[in-house]
Amino acid sequence: MRIDRISLEQLRIVSAIAEHGGFTKAADYLNQSQSNLSRTASLVERHLGVKLFDRTTRHFSLTDEGEKFVVMARNILEFYTRETNYFQDYVRGVNGVLRLATLPSLAATFLPSLIVKFRREFPDVRVEVSDFTAEEVLSRAVEGTIDLSITAIDSEYLRDDPDRFELEPLATEEFFCIVPSWHQFAHLDQISWSQLSEEPFVSFGESSSVRRIVDRALYGKDIRPSQIVTARSVSSVAGMCAAGIGLSAAPGFVLPLMNIQGLVFKPFEGAPITRTIGIVTPKAKALSKPALAFRELLSTIDPEDLNLPPRTEWHGLKDTIG
């Protein structure tokens, strides 16, 4: 089998023959002679070592191998067309695709207004947003499968190679206590972290940036909740708190996703516990034109256009990468 000798043009011809149900209609569609299509099909079959078509003067059909080959050919042609179009758009200017990786809370609360503004200015850019945990966002940044990662900036995630990444803070958000509305703490204006020592607690999953910051706040103050239940998703944590399984703590950008009946959010007393949100970029990575344009937006946008949560400080980007 010499499948590596098969060209894109030969893939197009075989796909057209299959799509149009034979050589006659495919020849008309491609504006080529039937004899040329027949020679191409025979050459492809010789390269593959299998028959793709059962054909007689009255009958035409794909063999089992032919059906599999046509599926592969169509996938290759679609991929080639899509990617070459993206590249051509990229060369022409700020076009193509912008791939963003971020936290679920930011994808739901922080990014939408930014994307709306970005799309108004750059309507030819297709934006793809993927949401992951903080560790997973960092992994995508390292792999180079995304253009920009907007995530929690936490030294613990970067301790193995702190000089590998460019860290640019965007905002700092305070943590709030998540309290069932019927709980004795619900009437308080503020809650101290020490008050959690006698309470059951609902914790985020271990890969969450929220979990790491809350653990440092609790155990750094030698606070031990009476029991801990762990849930991975924001909605699960909210549901468990509303059901009375325990209290929890979450930062401002997470709160809109926890705004369900039966919960209230109370600020903590004393020096605030915060999470910093920012851009994490591998230092060796050159940003695409859409990524540079989005980064420029982050440096110029008015924070009042972002609907920031309470007690969130917007830093923005101080300069741009030229």
UniProtKB/TrEMBL annotation:
Keywords: DNA-binding, Transcription, Transcription regulation. GO terms for cellular component: cytosol. It holds the Pfam family HTH_1. One of its GO terms (molecular function) is DNA binding. Residues 6-63 form the HTH lysR-type domain. Belongs to the LysR transcriptional regulatory family. This is HTH lysR-type domain-containing protein. It comes from Corynebacterium crudilactis.
